[in-house]
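Q: I'm writing a short methods note and want an example of a predicted protein-small molecule complex. Could you take the sequence and the SMILES for magnesium ion and return the bound structure as tokens? Please keep the output block clean; save any remarks for afterwards.
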Amino acid sequence: MSEAPVLRVENFSKQFTLHEQGKRIPSSHNVSLSVYSGQLTALIGPTGAGKTTVLKGIYRTYLPGSGRILYRTQAGHEIDLAQADEHRMLALRRMEIGYVTQFLHALPRQATEDVVAQPLLHKGISKTDAQYQAREMLAAMNLPQRLWGISPSTFSGGEKQRVNLARGLVSRPRLLLLDEPTASLDQYTMERVIRLIEKLKTEGVAMLAIFHQKELVDRVANNVVTLEPPPAEEYALEETA
Ligand SMILES: Nc1ncnc2c1ncn2[C@@H]1O[C@H](COP(=O)(O)OP(=O)(O)OP(=O)(O)O)[C@@H](O)[C@H]1O
Ligand SMILES: [Mg+2]
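A: Understood, no commentary inside the block.
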């Protein structure tokens, strides 16, 4: 591979401090990985190994731990997301980095098609275009049209996941982070999502995705990174400060 990666994570570690109990909880431990344009890197490993924490560290939902998170921007600059200021992070989230979380957080009064169109509006796309693309993506996700005008807050798990995916995929970010995107989908919808992921690859999107099903990893991953749970002695450390 001669092209430079879009994202390079070097020795990322993160631990949480529970101040009230004076305890440290180790999470991601020494994670290194690369994600390339037009390719999908799969992040696998047992429950509690710190997979979601890696994605949240990249997206900066969590404060940075140690290590470097080097992202190559559209403009060609390499920046360390672990050091970037909030303003920069907000701009990157709006224009370049997308994140499909495991669970959808939507406002109870917002119609599904508006939830999906929102990232496009934030990117500066006109309302008409955003609405058109949102509907196309909802149709591609096989979400029944009768649900488009109502809020997803009362949807079933699989329906919510389709809305969440539609919202993440519609804006075609340069780097897309996916946390178990197909966990509650039926086989038919899962096939559609796989095809969409393949299409995004041909468009050059770089993806980092957490999967639990090996079959899926074999089908869509170009690279596989396996996380191990933190070593046992890490858990024994009590906070001293
Ligand atoms: N905000 C937090 N505060 C305290 N501990 C946390 C926090 N977030 C994650 N952890 C801990 O970090 C560890 C790794 O969590 P993480 O969610 O990254 O695991 P995972 O590999 O995604 O697991 P799963 O496959 O079950 O989703 C867990 O022990 C978890 O309890
Ligand atoms: Mg997780």
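A: Remarks, as requested: The chain has a mean pLDDT of 90. The chain has eight helices and eleven strands.
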